[in-house]
Amino acid sequence: MSNADMRGNRPLSPHLQIYKPILTMVMSILHRITGAALYFGTILLAWWLIAAAAGPAYFDLVNGIYGSFIGRLILFGFTWALVHHMLGGLRHFIWDMGAGFGKEAREWLAKATIIGSVVLTLVLWVIGYMVR
Length: 132
Hints:
Succ_DH_cyt_bsu_CS; 81% helix; 0% strand; 5 helices; mainly alpha
């Protein structure tokens, strides 16, 4: 038998349509999405810093954009993505240490990441408005 025959009879790799979505799978996908969103947010942060260095008029323009409803909504989403990605990284760190592999622990960590990211984002924004 040739190698071509052996390769031709191998099963196809499974894909997302075969797997039943579970919370840890969704969290893994969301971790990748938030990581990609952080690239966009970093560009916004760099733009703000460049505007601060460019002078008061340009800085006021950028602050006006960020201070609008849409700007604040984007910044809120960036904050949530940052916090969620950080907590997801901590979850992976716990797994790297060899803990949290049981079914209950995995589910608890996934739920804690979701709830923690929302709560911490809200706390950060409330503190930000109180300090302001």
